Amino acid sequence: ITANVPLSGIGNPTIPITDVNGTPAVSNPYGLTIAGEGVLGSGLVYTSPMDRAPNSGYGQKWAVCPPPNNPPTAVLTANPTSGPPGLIVNFDGSGSYDPDSGDSIASYSFNFGDGSMTTQPTPTVSHTYNTAGTYAATLTVTDTHGAKSANAAEVTITVGLPDLVAATPTAKNTQAKQGQKIPITVRISNNGTADAGVSYTGFTMDGITTLIGQVYTAAIPHGSYLDVTLNWNTAGVKKGSHNIYAIADYEKQVPESNEDNNTSSTPLTINIQGNQTR
Questions:
Q1: Residue 96 domain-assigned (yes or no)
Q2: For 254, how many CA atoms within 13 A lie in the half-sphere containing its CB?
Q3: CA–CA distances in Å: residue 216 to residues 36, 156, 195
Q4: Pair 178, 138 in one domain
Q5: Same domain, 151 and 168
Q6: Is residue 34 helix, strand or coil?
Q7: Do residues 174 and 226 share a domain?
Q8: Confidence check: pLDDT of 5 > 70
Q9: Which member of 143, 189, 220, 249 has the greatest number of CB atoms within 10 A?
Q10: How far apart are CA 47 and CA 39, in angstroms?
Q11: What is the pLDDT of residue 193?
């Protein structure tokens, strides 16, 4: 390897090949033989004279010292991040980067958190999760000089099913005349580990077989809830006390981890009195 250095630099202990902007250090150039690699980041270093005069530009022993190789940074995204078993997740590490000029990412190592791993030269991959659970998927990238990322690039994947549960219904008015409309509200909670799609909430009277109404219920994310209200028309309802139950996912549209806890455990009691005065 031959490097051009300024005449004034010959014989100096340290001579940079270029400045920080990459401008060659050329002034009355002399050819120098590079003897080996020195300490990283220290430039072109004079190591020892040989049998010729140092200022002649010949016979000196030098070492070239390249800049340090900084590790790359891994960036990982995933979509979707939750769903039922059989969930197919698309992972993307294309946001990963290397800070060194001229360097790049050579390989992407994905650990899916379920015992499965893969290393490949491309940044995207899909993986199927067949068992319910919570998984920490990670990405490690390696640059063209062999340095590995040290940062935490992690995405949590949740595999499971929703679990819709109806609370005890409530009403502001539990004493009503026949023919009155009574708003009945129930809170539907999703206690599962996956989001629930749209469904219908059923309201029944004196047991779970006599349906008095259904209400469209929007999708409920896992760990969240939705309040659903039925305006019950009591026309034709017999006088006396009646127990009102709410049943989440009445039409069984949503696959759930527990299909036996949709009905409110405690009913709302409403007393229907004589005919409404007109």
A1: yes
A2: 33
A3: 77, 32, 17
A4: no
A5: no
A6: strand
A7: yes
A8: no
A9: 249
A10: 11
A11: 85
